[in-house]
Design a protein that fits this description.
The complex is a heterodimer of chains A (225) and B (428). Chain A has helices spanning 12-22, 33-42, 59-68, 84-92, 105-117, 154-165, 173-181, 191-203; strands at residues 2-6, 26-30, 47-51, 75-79, 97-100, 128-131, 134-137, 142-145, 148-150, 170-172, 212-215, 219-222. Chain A has 225 residues and is an alpha/beta fold. In chain A, the strands form 3 sheets. Chain A has a 5-stranded parallel β-sheet, sandwiched between helices. In chain A, strand 11 and strand 12 (219-222) form a beta hairpin. The longest helix of chain A is centred in the middle third of the chain and has 13 residues, at 105-117. Chain A is elongated. Chain A starts with a strand and ends with a strand. With 428 residues, chain B is α+β, with helices and mostly antiparallel strands. Chain B has helices at 3-11, 13-64, 120-170, 185-238, 245-272, 285-302, 321-338, 365-376, 389-400; strands at residues 76-81, 88-92, 101-108, 111-118, 281-284, 306-312, 316-319, 344-350, 353-357, 404-409, 416-421. In chain B, strand 10 and strand 11 form a beta hairpin. In chain B, helix 2 (13-64) runs antiparallel to helix 3 (120-170), helix 4 packs antiparallel against helix 5 (245-272) and helix 5 packs parallel to helix 9. The chains are: A alpha/beta (225), B alpha+beta (428). The interface between A and B is medium-sized, with 27 and 35 residues.
């Protein structure tokens, strides 16, 4: 993918740049808002990663002018402003997602990937999801592994569904809280950990292998064998 | 009174007001007095002139009939005179001590007739009345001035109490309270100022406690982070051993804890500023509690405890669902931390009320108030575990929702029960 990154911080910019390149993307890093606008007008990007506060033209204004120029690439804001109002303002300006600093790189990567999938992501109207030897029936709400039924409660089912839809990609705690429990805050209790450990108890333990790998300090990856 | 003190007195707004009123009052009285004097004078002359004219007519009639000029009565004169003056009425006050006279001169066929009448008595009456009025004016002015000054000084003294109180508050002594007797607007003002100062005082105290809580909440992960990095660094430099992913992951976890504290702080600040109320929607307490139970029962069970839900006559309230979930999450977290082993945490809904009860040691009756005060007024200096940001958030969210927060015994007389009473939809 070709990504535009607007970030003026001398440490953070190159860090994002390098990380995204390592993930196999082509990255154009800008430190000035005006340069970013000019580049995005002339070149089509898959995702725009914009810092809210940069010299020249701030991220919000960059996106506003790009949206007026009918540039439709999905955009994700990076910001040190964590207030809900700022989030709303960012989304209103045409942003698709919002990431508050400090963030885990895996979080940024995961969110970028979600954004790219979004346009065609009329989450396939299939009634069945399968990964490895797990089959999830979305209509009957049943789960089978190696043709043996696995009894999941609604949250565990949703959790597994989220994992299966993003196979091989890191899911951070914040993303899971958002997608499974619709929580935009961290309830401090170990909600995610507990449910993942229960899910593991049902889909891993009886089969003696590992499907959900914990990445310490960032999140979880679903990797069926 | 020295001129200094006088000018100081004149600067007092109450005294100024009193003087303005006094001036206004004097002007009105003077105008009334002058008017009355003039009016009386006119009436006296009119009556005398009418009598003189009548006598003149009678005299002319009698002289026409051949009689002589009628003899004047007491206090009257009548004469045929030769005079260069014109016909008409005139007053004569020849001798200040002698009688004041009013004359009518008319030229007739029988010569020039001059009729007079002594008006001294009327004028005396008028003067007595006038003096009386002057005296009463003087007395009134004096009395009014004294009363005004007294009232002004009294008002000013009360104002000074308020002013002095505010000066103390401005100096940062937020425990100052203004005591003012009476039931007037000033005492109402004093009450309002006291209420404002108290709120300010509480807010400041709360901020102090919160700052120390925040420092505490941040120091622990920072200390661990430092320890972890230092250990890794020592191992790397002295033993030539590579830093392991576990060590880095552990460091990241501490950083996430610090970030989490900042997030909670920002959220608390936001909620306390009253933001978010505009996004209130109706929330069904039954739905809310059931979904919270679904999310957290696994967490509770993992600790060897259980979560039970009792719902009776649940109401809808106005609120922010996300915040309410957070409030319940924090209360459950608190119950987990302070409750007994293998206890049951109960979420109970009855009408617009919600309880979160545990079966732990509870809080003794006399300490409950101070716990609430810790939350509301920040009086405690104690760095109580669990009285940190989590419960501050609970309090802030409850306040934002206009919900009353009380602590009581658990359902069977043991443990702690936190009750939230939301305003019902009709009360809003």
């Amino acid at each position: 993918m070709r990504l535009l990154v607007l970030e003026d911080d001398a440490a953070l910019g190159p860090w994002i740049d390098e990380g995204l390149r390592d993930a196999g993307h082509v990255v154009d890093l800008f430190t000035d808002g005006r340069d970013a606008v000019i580049a995005a007008m002339g070149q089509s990007y898959d995702v725009l990663v914009l810092d809210r506060m940069v010299p020249g033209l701030d991220g919000l204004s960059v996106l506003k002018s790009l949206r007026q120029a009918k540039v439709t690439a999905p955009a994700i804001f990076l910001t040190a402003l964590g207030e809900v109002d700022d989030r709303v303002e960012g989304l209103r300006a045409g942003g698709d997602d919002y990431l508050v600093k400090p963030f885990a790189f895996s979080e940024l990567l995961a969110r970028i990937e979600v954004l790219v999938r979004r346009p065609g992501a009329t989450e396939e109207q299939t009634s069945q999801l399968s990964a490895g030897d797990i089959i999830l029936d979305l209509h009957k709400r049943t789960c089978h592994r190696q043709d043996r039924p696995v009894d999941l409660n609604p949250k565990e089912f949703l959790l597994l569904e989220v994992f299966m839809r993003s196979e091989g990609r890191v899911q951070t705690r914040a993303m899971l809280l958002e997608r499974v429990w619709s929580m935009n805050f961290d309830p401090t209790t170990s909600v995610v950990e507990t449910h993942i450990s229960r899910l593991r108890g049902k889909i891993e333990k009886p089969f003696g292998d590992v499907l959900i790998r914990t990445i310490r300090g960032s999140g979880y990856v679903f990797e069926p064998t | 009174m020295s001129s200094n003190r006088l000018s100081a007195l004149l600067r007092l707004s109450a005294v100024r007001q009193a003087f303005w009123l006094l001036a206004l009052f004097s002007t009105i009285t003077l105008i009334a007095w002058g008017g009355t004097y003039w009016f009386m004078q006119r009436e006296i002359l009119r009556a005398v002139d009418a009598r003189l004219a009548a006598r003149m007519e009678a005299a002319i009639l009698m002289m026409d009939a051949g009689d002589t000029l009628p003899r004047p009565g007491d206090d009257q004169t009548a004469a045929i005179v030769t005079s260069a003056e014109l016909d008409g009425f005139r007053s004569l006050d020849t001798d200040p001590s002698g009688p004041d006279m009013r004359y009518l001169l008319r030229t007739t066929e029988h010569g020039r007739v001059l009729l007079g009448e002594n008006i001294e008595r009327q004028e005396e009456l008028r003067d007595i009345l006038s003096v009386g009025m002057q005296l009463s004016l003087l007395a009134t002015l004096l009395a009014t001035a004294i009363a005004a000054l007294w009232l002004a000084r009294r008002g000013q003294a009360r104002l000074n109490v308020v002013s002095a109180g505010l000066a103390q508050v401005a100096e940062g002594r937020l425990d100052t309270r203004i005591t003012l007797e009476g039931q007037d607007d000033l005492s109402l003002l004093a009450k309002r100022i006291n209420a404002t100062t108290e709120r300010l005082d509480n807010a400041m105290a709360q901020m102090r406690v919160q700052s120390s809580n925040i420092a505490h909440d941040l120091r622990t992960p920072l200390a661990r982070l430092r320890a972890e990095i230092e250990t890794s660094l020592i191992k790397a430099t002295e033993q030539g051993r590579a830093v392991s992913p576990e060590e880095l992951g552990a460091a990241l976890e501490q950083i996430d804890r610090i970030t989490g504290t900042f997030d909670a702080l920002l959220r608390l600040a936001r909620i306390e500023s009253g933001a978010g109320r505009e996004a209130f929607a109706s929330v069904d307490l039954k739905d809310l509690v059931e979904s919270v139970a679904e999310t957290f029962s696994a967490v509770v069970e993992d600790r060897g405890q259980s979560l039970s839900v009792e719902i009776e006559d649940a109401r809808e309230i106005r609120g922010d669902r996300d915040m309410l979930i957070q409030l319940l999450a924090n209360l459950i977290q608190n119950a987990l931390r302070h409750g007994a082993e293998e206890q049951t945490i109960t979420l109970r809904v009855h009408g617009p009320q919600l309880w979160v009860s545990d079966q732990g040691p509870g809080i003794p009756l006399d300490e409950r108030k101070s716990v609430l005060r810790t939350l509301y007024r920040g009086e405690a200096s104690r760095q109580g575990e669990g009285f940190g940001l989590g419960l501050s958030l609970v309090r802030a969210i409850a306040e934002l929702h206009g919900a009353e927060l009380t602590l009581s015994d658990g359902p069977e007389g043991q443990g702690l029960s936190v009750r939230l009473r939301f305003p019902s939809l009709t009360e809003l």
